[in-house]
Amino acid sequence: MGLLLAFPFLYPLSRSFFRGDASTVRPEWGATSGLARAQSTTARQSVDQVAQSPSFDPQPDLPRPDLIVPSTEVSPARAQEDWRLILHAPGAQMEAFRLLVGAGGRLSVHPDKQVLVAPSGPNVQFWDLEGASLIETRRIDPSDDDTLFTSARYSPDGRYIAFGSPYGPMKVLRLADDVLVPISTDRSINGDRIAFHPDGQRFVAIGERTPEGRNIPNAHWVDLQSGEARPLVPDEVKVVDAVVSDDGKYIAIAETQAISIHDTASLDQQMRSPLAEKPTYVVASPDGNWIVGLTGGTVRTWSSETGQFVQEANLDTGLEPVMAIDRFDDSNRYCVLTSKGKILIWDRDTGSTRFVGHHESAYCIRAIPGESGVVTVGFNNGSRLWPMPRPQTNSEPTAESQLAWSLVTVSADGSKMAAVGQYVHVWNVSDGKCLTAFEPRTRHIKDVCLSPDGSLIALVGQELKTEVWSVTQGHPVADYFDPDGENRWPGTIDRRSNCVRFSEDGRQLMVAEQDALRSYDVHSRQRLTELAKVSRKAGTVLISMIQAMDTDSQSGRIALAHTGRIVVWDPDDERALKTVETRGPLDAEHPGVFFLTTVNE
């Protein structure tokens, strides 16, 4: 059996309860549609020999952007962290963007160099922005394998990197000697958002965890020279974001319904002004005022003198809550990210706005030094590098420029690459040509998988609806729907979970739910195996809280990542062959469990 490796992932806490037995899955596109039975194909033969469903609807003629990447740059899915993909979409308003699969979290860009730092579980990645390539990956704290980091921030002088973790504690790395700087505090500051003082020796960290385990969104002022940390507001005040002024004299704290200004010398509150709507982000302005993003879809200027919003110099994004804002160097220009993934460049002096593109499910945006572009981060497929848009008279996006992708996968043989957003696109990696483009029927796709030879693509989406499409023909070939899908997949889960895989020969499809694993014959659509929460054979609990899966190409055995453990299953006997306990929680940004076929044990 191949050596089993598990990559850490952190599962969002859920209080939902699941049913014991799996419900029957019904094929939506007709179980008696005359689909061919499974034939004796090999792994290298195309499995795309399935009769078309009679309910097939012609797909619209969608834009087919080119994939610009040498074949040597694309690796199979189990080597995600080394991907460097370059996509070029059609349309005059969308320039080519580069996709760094594996770089995620609330990342940061070096103030003077084209270097990006991205947290990845217990590790940190350094990326070359000019070459869109991974420089190195290192462990943040060699003595701590359990703490998982989701945010990183360079100091203004580039000497330090502060790392935040949703469950704490945060760490500060001094780059000169690769030493972690101690922070003395009676609480575990997690640093979900971090803003440095201009001197690079102090910063404000947002979010903390009390010893009782309660998460309180607070604000702490951290001094690296003394190693001390002080809370800025009482525990009952919930903090959304904070930033330090350009001159380093003041801290602006955005609360759930107010903005308060604190003096950095005494840390005393200078003023506090209530707000009519909830802020989402606050950024310092060169003139001493504060730029505030709001849930109502506007970016407004808050005056430090009057304690009120000014009437002019505002940005209206159109009822889309503002997700993130960042400022370009020392200028008065800002990059803005909305909840719908729209990326805007706002010049506050002139009031002009330019559209860059869309990044579906993005939650973080960073300005690249020199105003050369921006970086956006999505929940599923890492970071994208966008060049600055050319001057244009119309800021509205064209239909072609609204293409967005939130999930990316590569076939096992490396020949095909697929990206999923509102539409599904599949490219031939060798020449970069788009093979097919279609709109899936299922929304909110959670996972995607290409068959080993790239001829089929499987999508799992809302309520665990599973679709299988032909890549070469662009037709749907199978569709399954679990009527209890909502119960099996709580709505509180907003991260990707690896839940669909093809067998090595491409003839079987496996779908992992929260409390059941089902395998199907791709051609006949018959359910072949079901491992449910309660085993009908043994009467004991077998599977619960599945987070990721993989299959062994030689034995057909299945590896399932549960909460706190990895289990290797024999699908024929419905029994566990091996159980591996994991150390601590695992990483939500890059979940995965993989067999290595080159090493035996």
Describe the protein.
The chain has a 6-stranded antiparallel sheet, with no helix packed on it. A 5-stranded antiparallel sheet has the order 2-40-39-38-37, with no helix packed on it. Strands 6-7-8-9 form a 4-stranded antiparallel sheet, with no helix packed on it. Among the domains are: 94-196; 405-581, YVTN repeat-like/Quinoprotein amine dehydrogenase (Methylamine Dehydrogenase, Chain H, 7 Propeller). Residues 1-54, 76-82, 397-401, 485-496, 585-590 and 597-601 have low confidence and may be disordered. It is built from 1 helix and 49 strands. Helix content is 1%, strand content 44%. The protein is mainly β. It is globular. 47% of the residues are buried.
Helix vs. strand class: mainly beta
Q: What is the mean predicted local confidence, pLDDT?
A: 75
CATH superfamily of the domain at 405-581: YVTN repeat-like/Quinoprotein amine dehydrogenase
What is the global morphology? Answer: globular
How many beta-strand runs?
49
How much helical structure, as a percent, in the residues? under 10%
Major beta-sheet overview:
6 strands, antiparallel
The CATH topology annotation of the domain at 405-581 reads as Methylamine Dehydrogenase, Chain H
Radius of gyration: 25 Å
Q: Roughly what fraction of the amino acids lie in strands?
A: 35-45%
- In the predicted model, the low-confidence regions spanning at least 5 consecutive residues are 1-54, 76-82, 397-401, 485-496, 585-590, 597-601
